[in-house]
């Protein structure tokens, strides 16, 4: 049998684009684990993530982070854990911690993740995202599932002018095109 080596490839080719007022960068350093709460298991899951990572359960519209771990709400009884794998955290170690209290699935390779930052980031997103992104309505830490152009997306505000945007890897190029085009059209 032929020995064919496989090499991981980023969904967007490690894209890093700078526009007049914003920077668009693919984030390939973030691992993702989806977490579903078992029936009547909320308290056990909440206690476990608090004990292991010092993390609280996210609300319906707010992501929370503690140290290297971020909990992003997806739906009732569902969230995504996002983290940068290092010596202490890996996809398998996170799943192993939650084995008895949640249903988990590795999602890292299923999503394309873009960080959009800079003074023009909000204006670029307002062109393609139907959410009210005013900082009073969508403050730091806010998270929401939405549509951008015709694609399903997850948006998290990290700071006033810094967002994480996530969309299915299968439509990553279309998602990149939508965000990139909006950045170009909204640049002063």
Structure at a glance:
The protein is an alpha+beta fold and 188 residues long.
Mean pLDDT: 95
Distance between the ends? 57 Å
Tell me the helix content.
10-25%
Beta-strand segment tally: 11
Secondary-structure element series: EEEHEEEHEEHEEEH
- Rg, rounded, reads 17 Å
Report the portion of residues in β strands: 25-35%
Q: How does the overall form come out from the CA principal axes?
A: globular
Low-confidence stretches: none
- Main sheet: strand order: 1-2-8-11-10-9
What's the total helix number? 4
Largest sheet: 6 strands, antiparallel
Secondary structure: elements and pairs:
Blueprint: E1 16-18, E2 23-26, E3 31-36, H1 42-53, E4 64-66, E5 69-75, E6 78-83, H2 91-98, E7 103-106, E8 111-117, H3 121-128, E9 143-148, E10 151-159, E11 162-168, H4 172-186
Antiparallel strand pairs: 1-2, 2-8, 3-6, 3-7, 4-5, 5-6, 8-11, 9-10, 10-11
Can you tell me about this structure?
There is one protein chain. The protein has 188 residues and is α+β, with helices and mostly antiparallel strands. It is built from 4 helices and 11 strands. Strands 1-2-8-11-10-9 form a 6-stranded antiparallel sheet. The protein has a 5-stranded antiparallel sheet with strand order 4-5-6-3-7, with helices on one face. α3 packs across α4. The model has no long low-confidence stretch (mean pLDDT 95).
């Amino acid at each position: 049998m032929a020995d064919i080596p496989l090499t991981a490839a980023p969904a967007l080719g490690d894209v890093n684009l700078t526009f007049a007022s914003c920077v668009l960068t693919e984030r390939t350093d973030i691992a993702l684990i989806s977490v579903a709460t078992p029936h009547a298991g909320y308290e056990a899951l909440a206690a476990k993530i608090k004990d292991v990572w010092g993390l609280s359960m996210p609300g319906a519209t707010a992501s929370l982070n503690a140290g290297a771990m971020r909990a992003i709400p997806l739906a009732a009884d569902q969230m995504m854990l996002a983290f940068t794998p290092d010596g202490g955290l890996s996809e398998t170690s996170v799943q192993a911690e939650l084995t008895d209290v949640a249903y988990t699935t590795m999602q890292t390779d299923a999503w394309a993740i873009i960080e959009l930052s800079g003074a023009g980031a909000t204006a670029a997103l307002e062109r393609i995202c139907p959410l009210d992104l005013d900082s009073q309505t969508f403050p730091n830490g806010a998270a929401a599932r939405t549509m951008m152009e015709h694609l399903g997306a997850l948006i998290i505000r990290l700071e006033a002018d810094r967002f994480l945007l996530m969309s299915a890897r299968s439509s990553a190029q279309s998602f990149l095109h939508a965000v990139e085009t909006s950045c170009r059209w909204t640049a002063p």
